[in-house]
Each structure stands twice: as structure tokens, then as C-alpha cells.
């Protein structure tokens, strides 16, 4: 006790040891969590507006900092590795957040069902004993595909399956279907969480569907019954859908004996027996009867000027008119004036 | 985790980590700041913004290229840049005859501008002009606010104080090394100006347990003149300040400590 008193006496008399007391008319509002001190006291405007306010500002800062440090030193502190640490309280001064608080994750369809039924998750082991390979095989993840590949070198054809069916293809198709189904269910869960309305049938919603979309939607709705739309009533003027359910079909490779030959012959007939749009024999015979006409000067150039391209074209109903045919008829061998070839857009 | 709820899943682990960093969290990351150079600047204001970046490192980025952005006319450009850099504080500097040495400070909430304040910088003294030892990078500064305008809720300075605290407070920490309290930033509001001064704390022995504080000015030092403001409405600000329920400290009922320090419970 005595020693302490001596020390204090020394402190008071010694000018080098200063007091940490600061007197202010109004208390500072301290938020230690933010190391923030707000001073409500009035300022000395005369000093502030003078040419050099920095001296006054520094002394003001020193006083306020002293009060802040005094408060910090009252906090509980611990010593960690020769370092003294104080535990700061939670910041009180309210500051806005960066982003709004996250909403909790909504439960998926399975999770709600499992919760209702009381089904708990059971941890599965990574390695599974496989009798074929006679080794521990990973159930998922690293080296699982390799393990499957070892067993995959041969696939048995089951008794009730078509002998010509490709089992490997069937397996890979089944897998891609499972993956697609899983992806669809994941997206559905997300849509449910975000409360986005997704139609269960294959049609996506559009705000203003046009005639064809409405028609398609109606037909899909009709088919979506237990008997696949067989007993649905038809509207009086309802038109059946074109190519409904039709996929692109090809003829089988091996057909009946005469069928392929007949098909090819039909194609040949259609090509060879094409009737020209104008009756060539008639025109030729008429031309022979009437004799050669006066050659029109610069007939080729004139027709070029008029911009006729290629051969004479006619519609279905045009008949060969007298005088409308030029001598030499179709411009055989003469390249018709063509328009400039269109440059490819880059 | 919000990541699992995305339609398009991240393809790489690095991408996944980047998305997790950016998503909304209960306890948020330290606010990043984006300083942008406007289309026309002066030496003074560029040095000012470079000093501010130094003050706020490593949570600040300075885009030195000239950007033709006018925040008070079109906020979209600022919003898209801050979205890209995942920063919720921004500062834009420019200089023209009408608004010399202009500094626009603002903050973002939910990818949209919350507050924006235009300040004119006068009497700027940079860090280099104070020839003395500085404070270490990343040091959490003490913030001092003095002056009547900061106290009155109706004035713009009340929200400006909030903005300054948001800008300069640094990381939110629980423990602090007592020797590490080295930096002080002082904001003094006089009429329509705010005087910013920055000091280094030197703790000296005193007769008591608490040390005696001595200050040394290290800079930068500048005077802000308040020009235009675009502040959020009271409702928007309130919703932005809303803290999630999970962070509320739960009161433990029917448990108390008696004089001897042993915990007593009530059934």
C-alpha cells in the first residue's frame, strides 16, 4: 500500500507523467464494437474558421481518442502468446447490409415426404463387395466407372429379350434416361421453391399463344386422359392434327421381293415421263408450217434489257401464243443474263 | 447453400467457390470498395482517390481507366460495375469547371444504389506530403465524429456520417490487439463542410493503467464540401438495415446466477 502511495505522489509531481482524464461537458457516444466515438459537444468555431484549424483539430482528436482508449482499456482482456487482446463487444451503430438476408432453403418434394413418414438418411459405405470381380468396388465417385467397365465386357441377353437388341445400347440409354429424369426433378424442385408455374405436359407457357400453339395445347390436353384421348368428344368443326404422332419413317432394309424394284421403276417413270409445260411438238410443227419469221434485230440484247433470265417460263395455264415465241425458242446453249451472285454474308 | 438451387450448376470447383463467396449470407463479408476514375479528372482528385484506396486496402480496387459514367444521371453503369467486382461501396472521381475536384461516394444494397453523396475536395494534402512513418495496412481505425450537423437526424450529415462509418470502419472483429490500435480518422462537421484528418496513435506511459494518448498527423487530410445527395428513403434504409432473425442473441429464460457465481435454474 505504501509503495503504491509513493508511486502516486511521484505521478502527481512528475510533469512527464500525464493524466488520462478528459473533461467534457457532454459525454461522448461510444460504440466500441466499431471503434466509433461521436462527440455531441459544441465546437470552437473561431478556431475552426481561422487560417490554420489543424492545431485545434489535433487537440480535439487527442481528447476524444483518449476517452475512447480509456473505455477500451476497461474491457476484459486475455493474454495470447505474449500479446494482450481485448474482446470487443458487438457493434451497436446500425449499418445497412450488402445484400438482403438469405431466405431458408425450401424442402424438396422428397424431403417433405421423408419428414412426414419419418424416414431418416442412412449413410452408405463407399466400398461395396462385388462377387463378380471379387474385390471391394467404390459405389460412387473416383474409379467407379473403371470398376463397372471391368464387369461390362460382356452382357447377358436375358431370356425374354429380343435376340437382336443391343444390350450395351440399352444399358447406356437407360442410364441417360435416369440422368435426364434426375435433372428434370431437380429443376422441378427449384421451380417449386421459387414458385414458378411450370406445366406438367411438354408445352411451355407463353403469354399470348397463337393459333397453332392453342391447337397443339388442345390436342395435348385431349390426349392426356387415361385412354389416351380415344373417347374424347370432338367439336363439330375440329380438324385432326396433321402428322399427329408420326415420326419420320423409313422403309425397312429388307422388303418383299418385287417392292423395291417397283419403287425404283416408279421413280424412273416420273423422271422420264415429265411433260414439259409447253407443248413442244405443237410448237415445232406450227413453226415449220408458218416458216421462218423476220429476224428481230438484237433480239438477244433486247431481251437482256428486259431482264429475262434463263429459259422462257410459263405458268400452268399459259398456252403457247402465236408470235410470243422467239426463233430459236429456248436459249439453248446461251447463258442467260443472270444477276450477280450473292456474296456470302460474313 | 444457395448454390444447389441454381438452374445452371457451376462446372468447376473454383467457380463454385466464387459463387458461394458472392451469395447472400447471414454474416456478410467485409464490404469491398470500388473507386472509379471518371472521364475528366485532375491531379489533385486522382491523388486523393489513390490515397483513399491505400487507406482501405485490401478491400478496395481502383479502376484507373477513364469511365464515362455520370452516377447522378444513370446509375446503371455503376450498378453493373459493382456487380462485376462484388463491391457494395463505390467512389467516383471527376473534375470539371462547375464541380471541381468532385468525389462521389455511394453504397449498394441488393445490387442497387442505396445512397450517393457528392463531395467537393478542398485543401487536399496527400499521404506523401506528411513525411513520417505510417500505419500498417489493414489496420482498423478509430472513428471520431464531432459537430452538430452529425447529430441532427433531419440533416443530410446524419446519413453522411453513416456512410463514412460504413466506408472507413474496415473489418468487423471480435478481438483486438491493444497495441494494434494505431490509426484514428477524425471527421469534423462545420456548417456545410466536413474536415477529415488522419492521425497515428502513440501510447505513452501514464500514472494509471490506461496509457496517455499522443497523436501524430500522417494524412491524408482534406476538406469535403457537401454538394448533391441522393439518399435512400427511410423505408428502404430501414429494410436494408434489417438483420436476419438468426443473428439475434437468444435470451435464456429461467436461468440466473446468484451472488456466489453458481448458476441457478427455475423449473
UniProtKB/TrEMBL annotation, chain A:
<keyword id="KW-0539">Nucleus</keyword>
<feature type="compositionally biased region" description="Basic residues">
    <location>
        <begin position="306"/>
        <end position="346"/>
    </location>
</feature>
<protein>
    <recommendedName>
        <fullName>Ribosome biogenesis regulatory protein</fullName>
    </recommendedName>
</protein>
<keyword id="KW-0690">Ribosome biogenesis</keyword>
<dbReference type="GO" id="GO:0042273">
    <property type="term" value="P:ribosomal large subunit biogenesis"/>
</dbReference>
<comment type="function">
    <text>Involved in ribosomal large subunit assembly.</text>
</comment>
<dbReference type="Pfam" id="PF04939">
    <property type="entry name" value="RRS1"/>
</dbReference>
<comment type="similarity">
    <text>Belongs to the RRS1 family.</text>
</comment>
<dbReference type="InterPro" id="IPR007023">
    <property type="entry name" value="Ribosom_reg"/>
</dbReference>
<feature type="compositionally biased region" description="Basic and acidic residues">
    <location>
        <begin position="283"/>
        <end position="296"/>
    </location>
</feature>
<dbReference type="GO" id="GO:0005730">
    <property type="term" value="C:nucleolus"/>
</dbReference>
<feature type="region of interest" description="Disordered">
    <location>
        <begin position="282"/>
        <end position="346"/>
    </location>
</feature>
<dbReference type="GO" id="GO:0000447">
    <property type="term" value="P:endonucleolytic cleavage in ITS1 to separate SSU-rRNA from 5.8S rRNA and LSU-rRNA from tricistronic rRNA transcript (SSU-rRNA, 5.8S rRNA, LSU-rRNA)"/>
</dbReference>
<dbReference type="GO" id="GO:0030687">
    <property type="term" value="C:preribosome, large subunit precursor"/>
</dbReference>
From TrEMBL, chain B:
<keyword id="KW-0539">Nucleus</keyword>
<dbReference type="GO" id="GO:0000463">
    <property type="term" value="P:maturation of LSU-rRNA from tricistronic rRNA transcript (SSU-rRNA, 5.8S rRNA, LSU-rRNA)"/>
</dbReference>
<dbReference type="GO" id="GO:0019843">
    <property type="term" value="F:rRNA binding"/>
</dbReference>
<dbReference type="Pfam" id="PF04427">
    <property type="entry name" value="Brix"/>
</dbReference>
<dbReference type="InterPro" id="IPR039770">
    <property type="entry name" value="Rpf2"/>
</dbReference>
<dbReference type="GO" id="GO:0000027">
    <property type="term" value="P:ribosomal large subunit assembly"/>
</dbReference>
<dbReference type="GO" id="GO:0005730">
    <property type="term" value="C:nucleolus"/>
</dbReference>
<dbReference type="InterPro" id="IPR007109">
    <property type="entry name" value="Brix"/>
</dbReference>
<feature type="domain" description="Brix">
    <location>
        <begin position="31"/>
        <end position="235"/>
    </location>
</feature>
<protein>
    <recommendedName>
        <fullName>Ribosome production factor 2 homolog</fullName>
    </recommendedName>
</protein>
<comment type="similarity">
    <text>Belongs to the RPF2 family.</text>
</comment>
